[in-house]
Amino acid sequence: MFAIGSARQRARVALVSAAMAGVLVSPGALAQEAIGELRAVPSALLSIDQNRPVVIERIVEVFRPAFGPGQEATVREALVGMRADQLLAASLAPNVDGLLAVMKSADSASALAKPVGKALGDTAVDVVYTPVTPCRIVDTRGGAGGTLLTNDTRNWLAANPGGTFVAQGGSATNCGIPVKPAAVLVNLTVANTQPGPAFLVGYPFNQARPNAASLNWVAAGTQLANAIILPLCTGGGCTADWSLFTSSGTDLIVDVMGYFAAPAATAVDCISVASAATAVAVSADTLVPLPVCAAGYTRTGSQCTGAANIPSGYLVETSAAGCLYRNLSSVATFNATATATCCRIPGR
Per CATH, the architecture of 128-261 is what? Predict the structure, then answer.
């Protein structure tokens, strides 16, 4: 149980309580009969959830006189997405600025709760682009099924199960592309076109053809090219990788320039970086700093090495800064080094 401070706050609680009870109460009546305390908060929140439309309407009604042009719709939309405790906080706001602060806080909490969709190894999210030497994979001029006809749909393989392109009038190699990447970057070129205006669309096999065109032309004999990212068929039933629809007859040339594939973990790459030999002064402590790792590497370990068989030399401690040596001799120095182990995970 807790006390509600101002009359305005008590009116807000009365407003919410009335809404939860299903009673229609005007703001003027609430001002005359404010509630002093709010009891059984969990039950109150449950009741707010059960009567959300009424609660939202009453909050909007109280603050409506202070809304600017078009602000009411924005506030109402924000209230609909709030949790019960956030609606309670909104009902207790002393003014519009307080209400907007509650809305901003609720929006931030909602954004934090949304799934980000970033996971190493996802087949379609955060994929990595790898360029290849431009390589021709399709050329219908004199082969690969011949010229495409008007309203023709042709299905293609990016690579066969062995990783080599099938007979499509292009290269007999895999062009540096692994089997089944998520997408390829290709340059589509039309030649020997028939009368236009016309268009063609490239899209994943086994999916509905999208409305967006990949390339357009307006007249016969036009030769045009356009580079696009072309997603490939995923999952079962992919007897082909991608499809192409053309609204008018044309020959097609496709050159692949790179591919998008899921990240792949690789072995940790580690190197050792040693400092120069540092003289440890007589009767003194001397810190030998650890070398800085090269860009892209992170220090994961260290090693401290001093001259052998020096009875006066000691390693005092190892820290993030380096190796601290102590020389108890009053007549002779000795040399020591600090070595950093620097590692990275290259990935793909």
Answer: Sandwich (2.60)
